[in-house]
Amino acid sequence: MNRIFIAAAIAAAFALPAFAQDKPAASPPPSWQQGKPSAMSESTLHPFAIEVTGKAATDLPIDKLKVPSGFKVEVWAEGMPGARTMAQGDKGTVFVGTRQLKEVYAVTDRGGKREAKVLLKGLDAPNGLVFNKGTLFVAERGRITRYDGIENQLDNPPQAKVVVDNLDPNNQPGHFWKFLALGPDGKLYFNIGAPGNIVMPTYMEASIMRVDMKGTLETVAQGVRNSVGMDFNPKTKELWFTNHGRDWLGDNSPNDTLHRLSRKGMHFGYPYCHQGDTPDPEFGTHRSCKEFDKPALKLGAHVAPIGMRFYTGKMFPAEYQNNIFIALRGSWNRTVKQGYNVMRVVLDDSGKVTKYEPFLTGFLLDEKADPPMWGRPNDVMVMKDGSLLVSDDQNGIIYRVSTTK
Amino acid sequence: MRFAALNAVALAIAFFFATVAGAADPSLCVACHGDGGNSTNPAVPSIAAQPRQFISTALYMFREGYRKDPQMTPMAANLSNADMNELAAYFSKQPAAPARHRARPENANAGPQLVQKFHCTQCHGGELQGLQQMPRLAGQQYDYLRAQLSGFRDRKRGDLDGKMSESAQGLSDGDIEALADYIAGLGARQ
């Protein structure tokens, strides 16, 4: 009996690998499903794709958009498929980056009408933009470049000069598109995200870094899964940034977060701990949330915060001064959708959050529909005149919020 | 052979009008894609009742060079984004003809398991009816499906985000044959 069993086991041990070689292994599920537990295997939740040809504002329910009393919202420019991060030049040009496409657009004002044109082509996810002293800095997936004097030659842009290269040596799927912000120290701050939904990052990943003009790199924050929005507090000069939490932990967990970097080297928990207090079911087993720094604010589960800027303009009422505006581009990873708003965050003098409320709403049409929204706020930018621009990469449109007085 | 000759004539006519008109005219598309976008040529995909966003995305990919095809690349070259949106809206609203393809019994049996193994419904939706930027596969032309699956596996078929190329890596030639045969025989939801 025993001998037969052993013989069968030996035969099986040899037979199985031979069988496995005949049949190639099935491919893994799509990368956005990484970390999906078997209990959710029937879930049909999925990310939404942008309209790569853009949409005309006349084909959209723009009149659904709502802002608080005393404000108005209007279409400012359109015809820029995939429009995301915005930066304003000294002469008023608004530069617009993309992530899924390869273009950077320039929007100029021609007698009260905006004209949008493709400025740079063929770039690799040119999502990060900073304009400073005549130079446009562009963060692509793997490098940061500079275009000097570009506003004087919008029809014939200069060649890119490299600030730093080889930021994406593996060329694998992951959160490797970049936001770019200029620090008060003159250095460029940017993110390198996590290589998947919930995956152990390698040494440069899941971080916020900075680079000086000579190309010297430093890590300033760790444990940051995917930040695609940051700005410096105009009063304290501290870096604040948004962060996307992991997917597939349910409708209400974890929250996406807003962070305040009060010292270099803070660690915000990924992949061990989410939202400062929720251990990861897998990676959190042998670590404690007490080891890690806490977020400044929980923004809601899966709401996908992207652009965030402090309001420093002169147009809005005084109580908006140094508030933070945050664009929520999601949610997709919950059965009942929420988000798709521009939010307002009010801080007290110590930098503590005292209020978190919707500012621009109306993109979300039906929280149970697929898709649930007709547009997606992506970045916010304060114009020199104090109005607030909001980009919508779903449709390739930029809206402008201003006061009615 | 006969299809190829017919196709060449249809295409020549379509080119002529595309150059003259230079705009979004669905009658140019149906020269190859069939009446109302229901193809009768096994190598040419049906575009009737495909999701609107899938059609505009496909046209964009041809114009921008992400997908290359000797017939479609020049057809898309001069279309504006607005033209593409207009064509996409039009063909997404055309009714799909019932599938005429009959899968071989062994492939009809093996099909559902292969669909599950390669996670097809995760993006293309239950019953492979497509959704948003994802094409409906059910009832699509057999030769076309086979060519696309091989193209993705061999990394010769353009793919905006790389997801379909990744998904096709484990396919054997036999899997491709069986999947294309099975899926072509499925009906489009009416």
Verbal overview:
- The complex is a heterodimer of chains A (405) and B (190).
- Chain A is built from one helix and 27 strands.
- Chain A has 405 residues and is mainly beta.
- In chain A, the strands form seven sheets. Chain A has a five-stranded mixed beta sheet with strand order 10-11-12-13-17, with no helix packed on it. Chain A has a four-stranded antiparallel beta sheet with strand order 1-27-26-25, with no helix packed on it.
- Chain A is globular and about 60 Å long.
- Chain A starts with a helix and ends with a strand.
- Chain B has 190 residues and is mainly alpha-helical.
- Chain B has ten helices and no strands.
- Chain B has helices at residues 2-21, 26-33, 52-64, 72-77, 81-92, 105-117, 120-124, 142-153, 163-167, 173-184.
- In chain B, helix 1 packs antiparallel against helix 2 (26-33).
- Chain B is globular and about 45 Å long.
- Chain B starts with a helix and ends in a 6-residue tail after the last helix.
- The mean pLDDT of chain B is 90.
- Chains A and B meet through loops of A and helix 3, helix 5 and helix 9 of B.
Question: Helix and strand succession of chain A?
Answer: HEEEEEEEEEEEEEEEEEEEEEEEEEEE
* Total of domains of chain B: 2
Pick out the low-confidence regions of chain A.
4-22
Structural class of chain A: mainly beta
- Counting copies of identical and different chains, the oligomeric state is heterodimer
CA-based shape of chain B: globular
Low-pLDDT regions of chain B: none
Element-level helix/strand string of chain B: HHHHHHHHHH
Question: What's the N-to-C terminus distance of chain B?
Answer: 32 Å
Under CATH, the topology of the largest domain in chain B is which?
Answer: Cytochrome Bc1 Complex, Chain D, domain 2
Number of helices of chain B: 10
The overall pLDDT of chain A, averaged over residues, is 93
Strand arrangement, largest sheet of chain A? 10-11-12-13-17
How large is the count of helical segments of chain A?
Answer: 1
State the name of the first-level CATH class of the largest domain in chain B: Mainly Alpha
Largest sheet of chain B: none
Estimate the global geometry of chain A from the Cα principal axes: globular
